[in-house]
Amino acid sequence: MSVRYALAARRTAVAFIFGFPLRVGDPTDPANKILWIVRTPGSGLTIRATPLHARRPAVTVRLDDSAGPEIYPSYVNVPTSGCWHLTLQWAGHTDSVDLPYDPSCPVTPPSGPRPPRVALQNLGQPMGSASDPGWYGNGTLWTELPPGLPANLADLRTTGPGGASMIGLKVGWNRARPGAVSITARPLHGPPARFIAHVGTVSEYGPTGFVPSNLMFGRAGCWQITARLGDHVLPVVVDIPFAAMTPSPP
């Protein structure tokens, strides 16, 4: 069973923790990784996973010592899915994080009515076709699903305010009625995370038709995006992929 852990960086710790897709069971599986980026020389990097709700023994993994700051792609082979508490020991310091987990993300499929011609305009020029299979909309606002991803997911890395490492995704919206699009989002699983939306304006792209957006997510995982055009709401659930994020500055 595939699972995804979404971990936020701990700014005060001697290690940064980020999520990789994992598979329960086989520690040799290349997807069975968690990325630890240590900032200081030290020894005794030990990872301990403790189940929070199930009566199961803790799992402990010890990694080779390090002579300096480096990346540790390491496995933690937990025996079952569920909610686990991870503790990292490194150079005499300890950091920990709880891992809220849900094995599934109810990704929104293409559905709804087809966009009319007025929505398929970009500054007066035709774009796309109403017969394209990826349209998802509510009769007023549309987007194409799934969102396009680059061949190299590392290209999704972007920098937010204050130098924060975030995941950037470009998403287009098509309007059949005049107005500006506003966008909010929240993670469906795990703790809250930062979200920033930059959306094209009516003065830039006109009152109807196509408008682009640049969406910035604080971490990978399952997110609900809510796009609004006037009183009309279009909710979209997407699985934001891990993008080899770099540590945010302390």
What is the topology?
Blueprint lengths: L1 E3 L10 E4 L2 E3 L10 E5 L7 E6 L7 E4 L7 E5 L9 E7 L2 E7 L21 E2 L2 E2 L8 E3 L3 E4 L12 E3 L5 E11 L5 E7 L7 E5 L2 H4 L3 E9 L3 E9 L2 E9 L10
Antiparallel strand pairs: 1-3, 2-4, 4-7, 5-6, 5-8, 8-9, 10-11, 12-13, 13-15, 14-15, 15-18, 16-19, 17-18, 19-20
Commentary on this structure:
This protein is mainly beta and 250 residues long. The protein folds into two domains: 2-99, Immunoglobulin-like, CATH 2.60.40; 117-240, Sandwich (Immunoglobulin-like), CATH 2.60.40. Helices cover 2% and strands 43% of the residues. Strands 12, 13, 14, 15, 17 and 18 form a six-stranded antiparallel beta sheet that branches. It has a four-stranded antiparallel beta sheet with strand order 6-5-8-9, with no helix packed on it. Strand 8 and strand 9 (93-99) form a beta hairpin. The two termini are 35 Å apart. Mean pLDDT is 73; it is low at 1-33, 95-103 and 244-250.
Summarize this entry quickly.
The protein is mostly beta strands. The longest helix is centred in the C-terminal third of the chain and has 4 residues. The protein starts with a strand and ends in a 10-residue tail after the last strand.
Order of helices and strands: EEEEEEEEEEEEEEEEEHEEE
- Going by helix content, strand content and strand pairing, the class is mainly beta
What's the count of strands?
20
Number of domains: 2
Question: Treating each run of at least 4 consecutive H or I residues as one helix, how many helices?
Answer: 1
For the CA atoms, what is the radius of gyration?
A: 21 Å
Give the mean pLDDT.
Answer: 73
Query: What is the CATH architecture annotation of the largest domain?
Result: Sandwich
